[in-house]
Amino acid sequence: MNEGQAAGWEESKNMKTEPKTEIWDKTGSGVLTETPLLLKACREGQFGTAFPFSGGCVYQALFTYLAGKADEPFFSAHPELFYGSWLVCMSPEWESFLRGLPMRNVFRREVMEPLCAESIKQLKPLPAGYSVSPFTPEIFEAHPFGHGRNYAGFGDFSKRGAGAAALYNGQAVSAASGFLTFEDQVELDICTAPEHRKRGLADHCISEVMRQCSRKGLTIHWDAQNRISAGLAKAHGFRPLTEYAVYCLREHE
User: Fold this and answer.
1) If both were cysteines, with which of 5, 21, 192, 237 could 120 make a disulfide (CB 3.0 to 4.6 Å apart)?
2) Average pLDDT over residues 210-220
3) 78 is in which domain, residue-wise?
4) What residues contact residue 223 under an 8 Å CB cut-off, 6+ apart?
5) Measured between alpha carbons, how far is 187 from 149 in angstroms, rounded to an integer?
6) Tens digits of per-residue pLDDT, 96-113?
7) Total structural domains in the chain?
8) Backbone phi and psi for residue 37, each to the nearest 5 degrees, phi listed first
9) What is the spatial distance between Cα 56 and Cα 251, in angstroms, rounded to a whole number?
């Protein structure tokens, strides 16, 4: 994930508002060729829900991943899985099928190469009045921007996850943390309150999370929703791996 995405998903998963991302403007394939951590966890029954059918499976794990052969009867019988969702094609068959349907939008995303290392970015000093703290029990229980909700509790998070928050007047105004952990791999979640952005807060939180993950042997996954997020990832030591398209179907009127 990336800055603003966790909140953006919560606001946009019913497709009533658009996520802050960028449009896929290529004519070539937007199939996702790498298996994302969310999908890996879903396949193992650790996150989301799987809907198998003859020849393939639909996985709902925040995004809706379409694997195997496209199945028009299954699509028609289960519109709730496809409309109002962010659809990611894991096969060219599904992409070809979707491109024949009325489309609301097609978004571009970029997968960064997973990394287990400390940040390489030279941080600027925090602005006056701000401080950065690893997640404490109090910060975790407050779930700033929804962070930490996929862990059983602070003990579980402390063992398998990582998190840091930027505080202002005692309140978390920016945070980076593991969205979920699966097999010593962490999906990174970053969010900053709009009125506190462009102050380097996310950089400090990311750097602290990377330090924690490196010491715990956790590999971080970063899925960038735009080039700004990808640039932020590169500044901390990540490298681009692949890009893909997210399809949003036009709902029936």
Assistant:
1) 237
2) 98
3) 11-110+243-249
4) 1, 2, 36, 109, 110, 111, 112, 187
5) 13
6) 999 999 999 999 999 999
7) 2
8) -60, -40
9) 24
